């Protein structure tokens, strides 16, 4: 027997849970890696459009930094390499001072 649940409250709960899971996955990946949104998408399987939305939210919260603009290993185009590691951000900010 196939069970289908068309209850909008259940769908909304599942969507909210998925958003939190994706955000956590992106945050943890960028703690250990410096990568572009395309590279994060490739590594995690999360759609790049979602990553861009989470990027904005994490930047506003002061938890994500653009480290360096250089060639993306995935697309071959120049793009910002990102990190959620505060140590990476402080190193970048110190270089900008000089």
Keywords:
alpha+beta; Arc Repressor Mutant, subunit A; two-stranded antiparallel ribbon; 2 strands; globular
How would you portray this structure in words?
A two-stranded antiparallel ribbon has the order 1-2. The N and C termini lie far apart (67 Å). Strand 1 and strand 2 form a beta hairpin. Mean pLDDT is 84; it is low at 8-13. It has one domain: Winged helix-like DNA-binding domain superfamily/Winged helix DNA-binding domain (Arc Repressor Mutant, subunit A). Helix 2 packs across helix 3 (48-60). By secondary structure, the chain is α+β, with helices and mostly antiparallel strands. The protein has 4 helices and 2 strands.
Distance between the termini: 67 Å
Whole-number total of structural domains: 1
- The ordered H/E elements are HHHEEH
Proportion in helices: 55-70%
Radius of gyration: 17 Å
Low-confidence stretches: 8-13
Overall shape: globular
Q: For the largest beta sheet, what order do the strands appear in spatially?
A: 1-2
């Amino acid at each position: 027997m196939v069970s289908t649940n068309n209850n909008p409250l259940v769908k909304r709960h599942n969507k909210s849970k998925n958003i939190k899971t994706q955000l956590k996955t992106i945050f943890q990946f960028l703690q250990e890696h410096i990568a572009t949104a395309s590279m994060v998408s490739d590594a995690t399987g999360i759609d790049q459009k979602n990553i861009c939305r989470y990027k904005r939210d994490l930047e506003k919260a002061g938890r994500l930094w653009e480290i360096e603009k250089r060639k993306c290993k995935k697309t071959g185009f120049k793009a910002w390499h990102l990190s959620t590691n505060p140590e990476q951000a402080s190193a970048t900010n110190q270089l900008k001072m000089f």
